[in-house]
Design brief:
The chain is about 35% helix and about 20% strand. It is an alpha/beta fold and about 525 residues long.
Length: about 525
């Protein structure tokens, strides 16, 4: 990861490959944002005019490079758009700072050091800028021989053959200020774990089956003092986890249920996070058509997010107990696979008629939700790339939030907004439950086609313990970016929901959740 420092140095005398400044979109053209006063002065106060001549407008994510003025030790100035200029006496939106820092960091791939002279009105601003640049500098090229040859086996190169930005100095930061240092430490921990989640999502399924994922979780748990328990096929069979076993029945790679437990001696609240971890989803016997299965290595993004959030909570020492449940299986067709029409007896004791084996995520989650309920946490949040219906409803950048408690749904939504993750509250209409009635079993795994994302949420609600507050995050849209990178979001795995879960844990620790 990019090394971070806080610096009180002046931009002209700092040795770096580039100076990053912010540019806002004003009513009369681009305007130089606070933090870049020394740079603007070196251009005789005409930096905004120079940028406008070069075509810059200050639009969000826009990156403009120009030669540094005479006397600067850095050869290049990188102007990054912050979007609309804020109202007088108002600061820049945290997400605008985060995205700008990410765009600049990505544009500086191959550079050894850059100085970021973005607006830092307070410690929180330093935190979001640090988070943005650390996430924006991410790349995944572990399988590209050309990258290793060009940069050496130790270098994790960018997709264009350039290594990520090596070092970043935040100008205007206060190195001795406890609040600034804490903000940087938090940003580093969250970004490192989120990037670990991205790595897992991007790893090919032939190298990340349920057993391999469980091994990664075990290693991280040992490193960070987290208690871990892994149930293999025998333990799952003995325990009666029919949902997880049914989904994994067709694969040569056996399923796993991983429980990660972070405990704080000062905790007054407990949370359980449950993640869908289908390491590859072919659809099973209800096989996905060509064009719909090439990216299905990402179907474990929910489990990756839960894993990362628990480790981040441990690294931050949050005063809340957090348990993560990773429901891991590979959904494959074979002679031993679950068939449409089969009935599974779940861990809760309920029976489920499987009408479509490609609606498998809800089956593994059902077992994990019931297992999480046995610990009687104050709240459960599950995270899953669950339905294409949610993508149709909300698009590729926003995830849906459903819950059995409206106030809790609102609290999770607010946490997502604070974290900078686009999300939207969705209902659980009771009339859709009837569509899952089965003549054979207690419930079917499919219901009405219209509103399929909501139907899936209603199914999951059936497996939450009575009296336990629960929310469901359907991250099918934003979990995997098939388009080009934007802001601090790369192509491929995004790490969606990690920051929301961490923020929820922070609010719970502070007694401010809901």
């Amino acid at each position: 990861m990019t090394a971070l420092t806080l610096s009180t140095a002046a931009a002209p005398g700092l040795r770096a490959d580039a100076i990053v400044i912010g540019v806002a979109k004003g009513a009369g053209g681009p305007s130089v944002a606070p933090g870049a006063e020394a740079v603007d002065k070196a251009y005789d106060g005409r930096l905004a005019a120079v940028l406008e001549t070069l075509g810059a407008s200050g639009a969000e994510g826009e990156v403009t490079k120009l030669p540094a003025p005479s006397g600067f030790k850095a050869p290049v100035v990188v102007a990054v758009g912050l979007g609309a200029e804020p109202e007088k006496d108002a600061g820049f939106d945290p997400e605008a700072l985060r995205r700008a820092a990410g765009a600049a960091a990505r544009a500086l791939a191959g550079a050894k050091k850059a100085a970021f002279a973005l607006p830092l009105a307070e410690a929180a601003d330093a935190g979001v800028v640090a988070e943005g640049l650390l996430l924006g500098a991410y790349s995944f090229d572990a399988y590209k021989a050309s990258a290793k040859e060009a940069k050496g086996a130790k270098a994790k190169a960018n997709g264009n053959g350039k290594a990520p930005l090596a070092e970043a100095a935040l100008l205007g930061g206060k190195p001795r200020d406890k609040a600034y240092k804490a903000a940087i430490e938090r940003a580093t921990a969250v970004a490192e774990e989120l990037n670990r989640a991205r790595d897992l999502v991007n790893t090919p399924p032939n190298d990340l089956d349920p057993e391999a994922f469980a091994a990664v979780a075990q290693a991280a748990a040992k490193e960070h003092g987290i208690k871990v328990q892994v149930l293999d096929e025998k333990a799952l069979a003995k325990g009666g986890y029919g949902g997880i076993l049914g989904v994994g029945a067709g694969s040569a790679s056996g399923p796993r249920l991983v429980k990660l437990s972070y405990t704080s001696p000062k905790a007054k609240k407990s949370l359980a996070f449950v993640g869908k971890g289908i390491t590859y989803d072919s659809g099973g016997i209800s096989l996905k058509p060509a064009g719909h299965n090439e990216t299905m290595k990402c179907d474990m993004a929910g489990a990756a997010a839960v894993f990362a959030a628990v480790v981040a909570a441990a690294r931050l020492g949050l005063e809340v107990n957090v348990t993560g449940w990773l429901a891991l299986a590979e959904n494959m067709p074979s002679g031993s696979a679950t068939r449409p029409g089969d009935v599974l007896r779940m861990y809760s004791g309920k029976t489920v008629e499987v009408l479509n084996t490609d609606a498998e995520g809800r089956l593994v989650l059902a077992d994990a939700l019931w297992a999480a309920s046995q610990d009687e946490p104050d709240a459960i949040i599950d995270v899953a790339t669950l339905t294409g219906a949610m993508m149709l409803a909300l698009g590729s950048r926003t995830y849906g939030i459903m819950a059995n408690d409206d106030a809790f749904r609102s609290a999770v939504h607010e946490a997502a907004e604070e974290a900078g993750e686009p999300a939207w509250p969705m209902p659980l209409p009771e009339h859709l439950r009837k569509g899952m009635d089965s003549p054979t079993a207690d419930i079917a795994n499919m219901g009405e086609r219209m509103g399929g994302g909501l139907v899936a949420g209603l199914f999951l609600r059936e497996f939450v313990g009575e009296g336990i507050t629960w929310a469901h995050l359907d991250i099918a849209g934003p979990a995997f970016n098939e388009g080009g990178p934007f802001g601090y979001t790369p192509k491929g795995g995004t790490g969606t929901a990690v920051r929301t879960l961490v923020r929820v844990a922070e609010l719970a620790a502070a007694g401010e959740l809901g």
